[in-house]
Amino acid sequence: MFFNLPTLLTWARIVAIPLIIGVFYLEGMSAKEQNLIATVLFVVFAATDWADGFLARKLNQTSAFGAFLDPVADKFLVCASLLVLVHLERADVFVALIIIGREIAVSSLREWMAIIGATKSVAVHMVGKLKTAVQMTAIPFLLFNGKLLGVIDTHFWGTWLIWISAVLTVWSMVYYLQKAIPEIRAKSR
Question: What is the pTM of this model?
């Protein structure tokens, strides 16, 4: 199941990372062109997150490897994009530290909970899904960094959304920790 269609879409998110970053190093393009291409790439590859899950279920091609790779690809794509945005001075380093730190902490927590047989206590929750949705809206807004349709100031809205995402990031981490602590205490006796 390493190379079925859903897993290939997941791999595409990982392959997209150097493409999105590389756009900003291409010569002969205006900043607007670079922003537009990076935004389109991010949106297209972020959409594969929905598509790979849908196709895995529809084609009955779910696998343990796919279940492992999917969140890893999401985290790589988000973290790499955040680092690009910090480098371009479109996102605050503090926001990136919060989001990336949470991803490391929650991934480690989930691994630990799997070891002690309590994965259900840290299953994906609505606040985590909301955090992801806000992040996946903020990042392309900040990559675009201009007026969308001549009206929407994507830098302004992207900045607000990435900060809201940081708050949701902390909230979701606290939620998962609250769910995990009783299990951890019970298993450590």
Answer: 0.88
